[in-house]
Write a structure and sequence with these properties.
By secondary structure, the protein is mainly alpha-helical. The protein contains 16 helices and 6 strands. It has a two-stranded antiparallel ribbon with strand order 1-2.
Length: 479
């Protein structure tokens, strides 16, 4: 059994610029662990290194967003892929193909490497003197809480891929929940045990972040401008040059943890608990009493294609446009041409119009990741957003036979996307009916975000007959 991946002390040589200076890290020279954690900046660098790695193409910069996960969710046309290449084989669920195995293996190993980095950081920060940090106890709690939340989040993501959904749970042990550092022989655990630990870590992280993000003096951090664009931040005692406390939407902020808890409870089948967490996000207000999370006006969706007004947490990748755009070109060997994307809507759904959907001849592709460098939103990979909270609340209502309220939740999302005449609150009369409408709306809402596959899996609704919902653990690695 191979030992768990230990922290890489080569700090990532990705230096953010411009709107995301909060991600600035140390130079790429080798750093001694003792030296790294001798100053507060070292803790910042270690935390930012995890965020940066999650945004790379191996994880949320491609495979777990617009790449592998959306391919197996059947967003794209098989005819636009070359048969011998990994994307065609993935679309056909040929998970025995060498290159597909390599993708799945890299997701597993990179995820657990980031968990190891989180565990090392948690060990170090929990014993650190608050005087090391520029903002003392506030900053120590923030770093500790974010690392806990990241550890829980990554484990949950691995579980969603490498274990059955709860309705298919067979009580077998599928993944280890690694919460010590270093670990050499981790114990594999059941769905139930892993989820208990995920929830416990998220609850503790939420408690710690409450002291930061929702304290009265910091509520402005959660406004859209502050959270996503890093502007209009009341500093108080924090230096203007210190951007570590800006751009909370790129981080595991208090409401991101709340929203992820809602997602976890939803996966567990704890629908009322999921509803309560989702409603807390919907009801969140900033220092001016305005909603922290809202939908951009449907008339402005073309200039804000990711609707960062409603992003609760996103990942960062500076080269998103550069990485994605080749997959929309006719000359590319693999093209991400959409299929079954416009069915069922005759209304002016802005998600289906030219502002959001590009054309190459008769073929269509999403423009969500074609925002030019230097434009607001260009580096954002949505991780969890406001609309998901509406879907969660709607399903809770549908499962309690409150179909008018369930339909109203979907109507709200659809209305905000430009469907001004929508009446699902009067037409949905069954849980299956709710799921049909919800999945159809999710397909448009989550294109490029890697979320639709998990909804098919949760509900056991295969997008194609040969769909595989449980990835096999790589044979060459135990963690």
């Amino acid at each position: 059994m191979k030992r768990l991946y230990t922290i890489s002390l080569l700090v990532l040589c990705l230096v953010a610029t411009g709107c995301s200076d909060w991600l600035n890290v140390a130079p790429s020279n080798q750093v001694n662990e003792e030296d790294m954690f001798s100053t507060g900046d070292g803790y910042r660098h270690a935390l930012n290194g995890v965020y940066l790695d999650l945004g790379t193409s191996t994880l949320y910069g491609q495979n777990l967003s617009w790449g592998f996960l959306d391919i197996i969710a059947q967003y794209y046309s098989a005819s636009a892929f070359k048969e011998e290449r990994v994307y065609y084989q993935s679309l056909k669920f040929n998970f025995e193909h060498t290159n597909v195995k390599s993708v799945i293996s890299s997701i597993w190993s990179r995820s657990y490497n980031n968990i190891a980095n989180c565990n090392n950081l948690i060990n170090q920060v929990s014993n650190a003197d608050p005087s090391l940090f520029a903002q003392r106890e506030l900053e120590k709690n923030m770093i500790h809480g974010e690392a806990l939340a990241l550890r829980a989040f990554i484990h949950f993501e691995i579980l969603r891929m490498f274990a059955p959904a709860m309705m298919k749970d067979d009580q077998k042990a599928y993944i280890p929940y690694v919460d010590v550092y270093p670990t050499y022989v981790p114990s594999y655990e059941t769905n139930e045990n892993v989820l208990k630990k995920v929830v416990a870590d998220l609850k503790e992280a939420k408690r710690m972040l409450a002291q930061c993000d929702i304290a009265e003096e910091h509520k402005a951090w959660m406004s859209t401008n502050s959270r996503m664009l890093g502007t209009n931040i009341p500093r108080g005692d924090i230096s203007e040059e210190d951007v570590f406390f800006a751009f909370r939407g790129y981080r595991m902020n208090y409401y991101a943890i709340t929203a992820i808890l809602a997602r976890v409870y939803f996966w567990m089948g704890e629908y009322e608990l999921a509803y309560n967490e989702a409603k807390e996000v919907l009801d969140a207000t900033d220092d001016e009493g305005k909603k922290c999370f809202s939908f951009v006006s449907y008339t402005e969706l073309g200039s804000n294609m990711k609707d960062y007004n409603g992003i609760i947490m996103c990942f960062f990748n500076k080269t998103l446009q550069e990485n994605y755009e080749p997959f929309t070109m006719k000359s590319s060997e693999d093209k991400l041409y959409l299929v079954n994307f416009e069915k069922g809507e005759k209304e002016a759904d802005q998600r289906l119009l030219e502002s959001m959907i590009g054309s190459e001849g008769t073929n269509k592709y999403s423009r969500k990741y074609m925002i030019p460098l230097g434009t607001n939103g260009t580096d954002m990979i949505p991780g969890i957003r406001l609309s998901e909270m509406y879907y969660i609340m709607g399903e809770y209502f549908a499962r309690t036979n409150k179909f008018t309220e369930a339909g109203a939740m979907l109507d709200e999302v659809r209305y905000e996307r430009g469907i001004r005449e929508t009446s699902l609150k009067t037409t949905i009369t069954t849980l299956d009916g709710y799921h049909t409408e919800m999945l159809e709306d999710m397909r448009k809402e989550f294109v490029g975000e890697g979320q639709l596959f998990f909804q098919y899996k949760r509900l056991d609704k295969k997008p194609v007959k040969n769909a595989i919902f449980v990835f096999e653990k790589p044979q060459n690695e135990d963690v």
